[in-house]
Amino acid sequence: MRAGVLAAALLLPAVGEAQQCSPFLPGGRQVESARFLLAYRSVPEKIAVGKHFALELAVCPKAGVPGPESLRVDAHMPEHRHGMNYKAQVAAAPGGRYKAEGLMFHMPGRWELVFDVRSGGTTDRLTQSVTLE
Ligand SMILES: [Cu+2]
């Protein structure tokens, strides 16, 4: 009886967190760091050279990790050693959701999206390669 009550009490917070933050976006891609799961999808779905696009993001902490305090989104071309000509604006929404706007890949080739998730005094850097034709 006592053990049953304890188990129920321990389960509740986990269920609550799962409902609050889902690291899945329909049609999105996932990236993982030691502490976070991040999902993103671009709007529009197909990124075009020289056209502004936005990213919808979900950032969920893994078990026992405090939630993200801030998220930075940037991109660069590693082979060309340059970044974007624009700085992305990131806005937070409830449930670990974020929207980054004002990104633009101004030339074709391999870009790397960089997501910096700040939490508990340190930053997790997640990256994702995107090749534009
Ligand atoms: Cu370049």
Commentary on this structure:
This protein has 133 residues and is mainly beta. The chain has one domain (22-132): Immunoglobulin-like, CATH 2.60.40.1930. 14% of the residues lie in helices and 50% in strands. It has one helix and nine strands, in the order H-E-E-E-E-E-E-E-E-E. The protein has one helix at residues 2-20, and strands at 29-32, 36-43, 52-61, 70-77, 82-83, 89-93, 97-104, 109-119, 122-132. The strands form two sheets. The protein has a five-stranded antiparallel β-sheet, with no helix packed on it. A four-stranded antiparallel β-sheet has the order 5-4-8-9, with no helix packed on it. The longest helix has 19 residues, at 2-20. It is globular, with a radius of gyration of 17 Å. The chain starts with a helix and ends with a strand. Bound molecules: copper (II) ion.
Keywords:
133 residues; mainly beta; Immunoglobulin-like; five-stranded antiparallel sheet; four-stranded antiparallel sheet; 1 helix; 9 strands; 50% strand; binds copper (II) ion
